[in-house]
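Work Package 3 (structural annotation) set out to generate three-dimensional models for the target panel prioritized at the project kickoff. During this period the team completed the workflow that converts sequence records into discrete structure tokens, so that structures can be stored uniformly alongside our sequence database. As a representative example, we reproduce one entry of 249 residues exactly as it appears in the project archive.
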Amino acid sequence: MKVSLIIPTLNEIEGMRQIMPRIKREWVDEIIVIDGNSTDGTFEYAQEHGYIALRQKSRGSIKAYPEALETATGDVILTFSPDGNSVPERIPELLDKIREGYDMVIASRYCRGAKSFDDDFMSAFGNWLFTSTINLLFGTRYTDSLVMFRAWRRDLLWRVKNDVSEAGFEPAFCILCGKHGLRAAEIPGEEPRRIWGNSKVNKFSSAWAILVLILKEFFSHQDFKEAPAYAGVKKTKIGPPPNVEPNVL
């Protein structure tokens, strides 16, 4: 199993300086920093420390993933925020669960006593609402469908039917696993306060996009082998996911 750690950034130099030294190189095979044209030295920091540093051509962290995957060689992708919200020491546990045969493992902020110290009322309520709706409509038992910090098998991206450039891959992958009986798991992943700056997500437009995505997926019937939205993303020469019994959480 080869692991690519993908870190989208935009002016995250303070977080990078404090968080990145805690990530041990032996945990993953490559660390890819895809930068949205930072002006505070984030990109240069990534270069100086030997990470694969990419300049993002599009805008937004969601659109950064397909660009990063053009360079990534791992068959397992781990998405991580360097602003302090993601706890690096959880990385080995996420990957251990993937090795057990899971297709996606989420570091949930609300699983088994975990807590977010960064959520405000609106973001916490929105996550609860959308997670509950996904569970109701797709027969899953998630506690956190929106958090970035998770590990997933690369080929999940090729199964995404709809453009999720506004809603995000996180809810799309949760729905995908539920619809097609893939194996998903959660581990507790407490979320500390961010070290620097503010969230760059527009909560209202994001919420609307997630709602639209959920409804589209609920009313669509798609062959799991099709992947119209992101079929053009470069693939690596890997085999299919393990032939394990479907068990969503």
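The radius of gyration is 17 Å.
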